[in-house]
Amino acid sequence: MKNHIIPAIKLTGVLIVFLAVIYPFLVWGIAQLGPNSGKGEIVEYKGAVYYSNIGQVFSEAHYFWSRPSAVNYDAVGSGASNKGPYNQFYLEEVQTRINTFLRLNPEIDKSEIPVDLITASGSGLDPNISVQAAKIQVKRIAKSRAINEAKLYELIDAQTEKPLFGLFGPEKINVLELNIALNESTSKSNQ
User: Fold this and answer.
1) Between 144 and which of 20, 62, 80, 96 could a Cys-Cys bridge form, CB atoms 3.0 to 4.6 Å apart?
2) Of 42, 78, 72, 71, which Cα lies nearest the Cα of 57?
3) How many angstroms separate the CA atoms of 24 and 68, rounded?
């Protein structure tokens, strides 16, 4: 019995030191090299502080909409709904999102709606949408703000983040930064 207990206790001690002390300090040290020393990507706008790396809710017709969130954009409870593709409640939720989108974007056909506008991400906090998801909202926003669609397309192009090294990942747009740029461009044109 001693042959098994002593090595188990030693292994437990080594793992506690490594996983509870060394590894957290290693991750903390690496985070210090990142933007804002690992405290998130902070954006200050009109006296308010936002995190551009955490999804924000935008549901007004004059803004670009974010990807839906299963956790109401609460960073404390990050996660997915864990409902499968055949779950009746999940299907009803997605259908409600589709109906809402079509009601407020009547010129769009159901088959044109990008999946990232009707399904939540795995974390529920995705701050980005696809370029297609942004462009499909242009007509609604142009009508709501009474601005030229071409100006919105230029704004989308300016806010598009290219894949890492031109190879890894899709093109994407940070919704918070896009909506701030939208507000700034429309306030300048109204002056």
Assistant:
1) 62
2) 72
3) 32
